[in-house]
Amino acid sequence: MADQVLVTLDGVVHDPDAPLLHADDLGAVRGDGVFETVLVRDGAPCTIELHLARLRRSAAALDLPEPDLDDWRIAVGLALDEWGADREGIMRLVLSRGRESGGGPTGYLTVGPVADRVEAARRDGVSVLTLARGYSVDMAATAPWQLLGAKTLSYATNMAALRHAHARGADDVIFTSSEGMVLEGPRSTVLISRGRTLITPPIEHGILPGTTQQALFEVAGAHRFRCEVDALRPADLILADGLWLLSSVTLAARVHTLDGLSLPAPEIADEVSSLVGLAAETVGVELDAA
Ligand SMILES: Cc1ncc(COP(=O)(O)O)c(C=O)c1O
């Protein structure tokens, strides 16, 4: 059982405190690469196959060489063995374009402990500010080089939005487009409920396809929920019965306060939170044979 795990894509387990990257790695100097963040529970990587599929799509969007997913599965298995099964962990898969001087992509993965804020967000929910993202819902189609549907390493603006919210006493952020449409959180997908209907905004509006939302929608029908994808405005968030931020690490964080307005918990709050946990633990969890 280790406190931190570091495995490179060639299957070598490294000392996590030893330096790994070259100074000219394009992931470090340009954010030129892709990543995935996966929750490890009971020694298993939640929805890992959904993450590997998104890693491949993100790499394709950046014109990176197609990742060999079997190599990743082997590295994931090695990292899980090192991490153990007695506590949750956060596994991060990183694939950069590699060194500026050449030599091909850099791939590695780490596992570390789950941040304290995660447990609090799952238990108590979060307060959220809506913030302008500064672009239109058209941008994914009109400017594909913005890589909106890809999970790239360039997260500095998302982190800046979170700091902006924290400085104003909020825990998290929901971005809106220049037309005032609801997009996503800096590290989460937006979900609302109306009765037993669960609704999330369309990925065509330039948001990341969330693995947690995808897994939830795969299981929710069998639990008497209807699932819909529909354009949402901030007023829809306020008028909804329930509002959540979904993500691989936090799973479901109920939004209890939006722009200072208190949002009561819906009757289905506990049900949704258990269902998201069930989805994460059961959808796409079998590592395809490597
Ligand atoms: C911008 C953004 N949107 C949505 C999500 C939620 O995706 P997932 O459920 O796969 O974690 C994330 C997760 O990190 C994200 O960074």
UniProtKB/TrEMBL annotation:
Keywords: Lyase. One of its GO terms (molecular function) is lyase activity. One of its GO terms (cellular component) is cytosol. InterPro entries: Aminotrans_IV (IPR001544), Aminotransferase-like (IPR036038), BCAT-like_C (IPR043132), BCAT-like_N (IPR043131), Class-IV_PLP-Dep_Aminotrnsfr (IPR050571). The keyword Lyase applies. GO terms for biological process: carboxylic acid biosynthetic process. The keyword Secreted does not apply. PANTHER family: AMINO-ACID AMINOTRANSFERASE, AMINODEOXYCHORISMATE LYASE. Belongs to the class-IV pyridoxal-phosphate-dependent aminotransferase family. This is 4-amino-4-deoxychorismate lyase. It comes from Rhodococcus tukisamuensis.
